Amino acid sequence: MGHKTPLYELHASMGGKLVDFGGWDMPLHYGSQLEEHNIVRQDAGMFDVSHMTIVDVSGQESRKYLQYLVANDVARLEVKGKALYTAMLNEQGGIIDDLIIYLMTENGSSNEWYRLVVNCATREKDLAWMADRAIGFDVTLNEQPELAMVAVQGPKARAKVAALLGGSREQAINELSVFQGFESEGWFIARTGYTGEDGLEIMVPDDEVAQFWSALAEAGVAPCGLGARDTLRLEAGMNLYGSDMTDSVTPLESGIAWSVAFEPSDRQFVGREVLDQQKANGGYDKLVGLVLETRGVLRGHQRVIVDGVGEGEITSGTFSPTLGFSVALARVPAGTGAAAKVEMRGKEIDVRVVRPPFVRNGKKVFE
Questions:
Q1: Which of 4, 34, 7 minimizes the C-alpha distance to 19?
Q2: What is 8-50+146-235's CATH topology?
Q3: pTM surpassing 0.85?
Q4: Per CATH, domain 285-364 is 2.60.120.10
Q5: Strands of 113-118's sheet, edge to edge?
Q6: Contacts of 88 (CB under 8 A, 6+ apart)
Q7: Is 285-364 the same fold as 8-50+146-235?
Q8: pLDDT tens, 59-81?
């Protein structure tokens, strides 16, 4: 038996098919993965993401510590509640984990406080790495296991949550900027997500989350599982740790170079020397999107052949319910152009090479 979130009993009672995910018993779907995918694109669905690890970093040197720990620069967070996507790197520039960081205090506070959300499958590795890197800094790291987390995603997600919660929370949700959150009576509500749709990720005390989940269901928000979450994030061109990025590839090779702050040039962060050299030399592999508009489904680990250039590999692939054909992310040689082939059942099948994402806000976004 795996770990259970505070919503485990509700998942079972609502018909969720429970499977192991990173050591947690989580719902794969509640009957139809396809219906769950479509309702998030068209209306609002909710996901239990309480298995994610929440860590608070506080202390007089919390900013200095995080500027060293991660590839992006937390100095960019100038407004309370603002969020930043980034990665922790090893000394070789490989990605230990990707994460979101929220500024929880007013900018410039003498005792700044940041909240980090990291992946469940890498929890022990992440916490050990963070603790080791904290030596020598005046910081305190506190995991927050008493907080559950629910993601409500879709074009009607914010409106439904705001109407349900009412009062000051309703007003704050309506005024939220993208990638920003706010605290409210022990809750933290952020306009973030992993689906390519608008929506919220809401941290709720364990003893309140079951009532909140049930109230959302009564308000017309559909429970959704891991299956839909994966097809949604892939359509949105969002990486999955362990598949599209690992500790043996850098952000530049994983399509998230935008999450690395190379300026100011004197900021030293773990892995910087390797990234600076890689950026200067060029020629490194890149993560691209593949589109197969004929029959067949692209799958992870299939071989990608680029005539006259070399070979790569699909890192994530699936059938896209929104588009009606298969899409994939693949790591390929730097010289790859607009066309490639994928080896499927002993045959080389033509695919188009595009820049992710494939879908955003329910619409096709590539040419």
A1: 4
A2: Gyrase A; domain 2 (3.30.1360)
A3: yes
A4: no
A5: 83-89, 95-103, 113-118, 53-58, 140-143
A6: 69, 70, 71, 95, 96, 97, 99, 126, 129, 130, 270
A7: no
A8: 999 999 999 999 999 999 999 99
